[in-house]
Amino acid sequence: GEVDDRVVLVSELKDKAERTKRQSSAIFNVVNSIIGSGIIDFSLILLIKGGILSGAHSYQSLVNKTFGFAGYLVLSALQFLYPFIAMISYNIITGDTLSKVFQRLPGVDPGNFFIGRHCIIVLATVVFALPLSLYRDIAKLGKVSLISSILTTLILIIVIVRMVTLDLYIPQTEDTWVFAKSNAVQAAGVISFAFICHHNSFLVYGSLEEPTIAKWTQVIHVSVLVSAFISMLFATCGYLTFTGYTQGDLLENYCRNDDLVTFGRFCYGITVILTYPIECFVTREVISTVCFGGNLTTVFHIAVTVAIVAGATIISLAIDCLGIVLELSGVLCAAPLIFIIPSACYLKLSEERWNHFDKIMSYLMLIVGAIMMGVGFIMVVMHPQDCSHGKEMFYCSSENSSFPNISFSHFQPTKPSVLNMSAFQ
Length: 425
Known about the structure:
Layout: H1 2-34, H2 42-54, H3 59-103, H4 117-133, H5 142-166, H6 184-195, H7 201-207, H8 213-242, H9 259-292, H10 298-318, H11 322-349, H12 357-382, H13 418-424
């Protein structure tokens, strides 16, 4: 009897450990997906509530049961486009970031083909992104996402250090502390692109052991709080350092011969490569559901994955301006996926009174999403973002000898020359 009790106890402990492991894995997957921005987690919880009300187990199924086949097709197109565009943007970032890292290696010719962005994108895809994307179970990426989160913390530390050491060397722009301009909606679109994870919420929810709203709420609260905190630190430290000169890709603001930032670029490139497979999971899931009834044989699983990765790679080799990609994807794909569709589904499915908290918040999210889509698209067209891809900032030039590159101990802060300022502007 004692032996049987011990066997049962050990079995229960193993089951408990496995549940904890899977829940932790889910937390890290969500953090990895929405890192760089803080999102009001109400929308994510609302999405799963809608799934429970309709008996759906995927975003597509939820919309299909709520708005029929037409809504299902619209959602499927958006749900495919958003992560697919994210994969393209990750490739662009990988090429831009790691090419600057390899250029700093001793004895390496900066013009060498093998350290160019195109070659790096292809190699990173073939060696790392594609093999990780071939996994069938998203829970297996939990450890990968944990590594990505740790590297993100290291990058944040570097940004904070450079905020302190560069502050006196970079002049503030005239409109530094203007809170918002007429085209601020463009920023909302980029933020939406950064923090959306609705497209893979059902996948992560399904990876939980005995998934419930309570467990999902706990995962989302922890993930969102961590992501929001990191996002605020990145945004604040980055902007305090460069103010009006801040680029869409913050690491583009730093000089190429800054070795500390070079290490940060390396960490960032690895982080992006490790995040890539999560987006590929979603694009493949959409194709599987729409075209194959949700079941892919091993051969088709490999074929579809390779086709998706190859398509994203080809496009990313032809496009090198990250800001425009993020803005358009944010206002056209992220806004409806985050604000409009989850709210509309819940409003149609829920039988609560109109003044119930969930319904009031759903109405507000619906209005915000519609405004963001319409106004945001107009602003993107009227105020396209300048792309300074691959260019050194004016304060990195050799003429501005006061700017510190490697060491700060023997430099005195001075303003850059008028010539440099005029050329940059």
